[in-house]
Amino acid sequence: MNETETVSAAPAAVSPSIPEETMRDAVSAVLAVRLPGGESHVPDFTVSGPQSTQLESVGVDSLLIAEVIVELEERLETLLELRSGTRLETFADLHSALTPASPS
Fold first, then answer.
1. What's the pLDDT tens digit per position in 79-90?
2. C-alpha–C-alpha distance, residues 66 and 78, integer Å
3. Per-residue confidence at 63, pLDDT binned at 50, 70, 90?
């Protein structure tokens, strides 16, 4: 498997409440690796569509998924829920599984 493996599958539905650009920015912030000299590097990835990047191929585990969710909540200024029972294999899967939390 290469560093930026993608998967071809039926396109996942995009979360209507989370703009794709916001999702991309949040993922970039979490995946940014600090390099010597203060520069940062973000691996190539795609957050939507049939060529969405596999989470595993860029080292995203459950801890980083939680960090992406927190980053999105801060950017959107709202709490998000992750639909249970949803298998998360790609960034598109994560994007479509997130919805604003219901007020309690």
1. 999 887 778 999
2. 15
3. very high
